[in-house]
# Entry
Amino acid sequence: MLPDASAHGGTSTERFTAAYRELSPRVLGYLRSQGVDDPEAATNDVFLALHRRWESIEDGDDSVRALTFSIAHARLVDFRRAQARRPKQVPFEADEDPRRAASAEDAVIDLRGGAATELLARLGGDQRQVISLRVIAGLSLEETAQVMDRSVGAIKQLQRRGLESLRSLLVREAIDV
Amino acid sequence: MSELIDVLLDETELHDDLALRELLGELEREATAVTPIPSAALSELMTPRRAGSRRTTRRPSLASRGVIITGVVVIGVLGFAAGAAAASLEARSIGAGVSAVAHLFGPESAAEPPASTDRSMQAPAIGSSHQRPEAGTTFDGVSEADHASSHQRDGSQNAGDPNTRLGATGSASTGSGSSGSTGSSSSESGSSGQSDDSNSGDSHGGESSGESGHGGSGNDNGGPAPTR
# Structure
């Protein structure tokens, strides 16, 4: 968790730096799991926006975490709106063609890393967001409902469906392997 | 963060699914493995600012500037006075130099000479006609009549300029032989050159007794030359 400013006697800059070290990997992972084009730049934008509101935060590290991912979720919504207005144009690259059969080395690498993130990417939009906010961001049920502007019951339903989908995907992958 | 995964599985009543727990743990590790490099603007915000890093040029206060200006003025006046004391034959001390400098800028300086009690200031005035120590004594082998004749010209022509007067006195002492006064002083060359035609060095010697009275009248005409 984030260091307590009063306990450590740190300045505002030190507390912000500690918050960045704690939360920036999670923000980056959350934005990457949602398919943002440039997650590193979006993470920097999130923390720049957080710094503008930094002096007004008084409730502690939980509010810092919730506010940070609220900003990140707002950036994600902006990204999706911009993506909907202008379809993404990607040049053809043979290595990224899904019709290509993976080599044995690629299969081993895929098995060792990135499999969980890839399984998460197969979920639907809202389920993926809820699982990401709960697991990657570390938000509670209420904080997730606050960030997504949904009720707690709706979040519960989404996370249940999301976890069941993940389990079914995991079973299917195990059968295929 | 594993506690949060346990809570999540408990909320969904899937806490006995170990494969799903493993998957969620792996998902968390993959997503949080990379720490992004902060941008330049963000690094600037996270850099602790030292107290001395913000260095501002502090101007001295008005009182300090006044003290500095006063000190510079005093030092300048003293230096100017020392220069004047060194350059003048009459002022041999800085105090006398200060008075001489003050006398230069005073409006009444041309009318009356400054009252000086310094003996060193009177010593160079021996060559002048109105402070001669003894009547009849000679100065550098020149008779008093020669001084009188020379100061007659001096009093009538250059009574106000002590430097010129001193030069004329020196010219009389050297001019006792022949015609030394013509080339003795550059400041005198214009006027005394003409008078030298009528009063040559030879005529000085011959008219010494007769022109002694003219010497006194020369003093009266010329008036007291200001001594500095």
About this structure: The interface with chain A takes residues 1, 4-5, 8-9, 11-12, 14, 17, 19-20, 23-24, 26-28, 30-39, 41-42, 45-49 of chain B (CB under 8 Å). Chain B is about 55% helix and 0% strand.
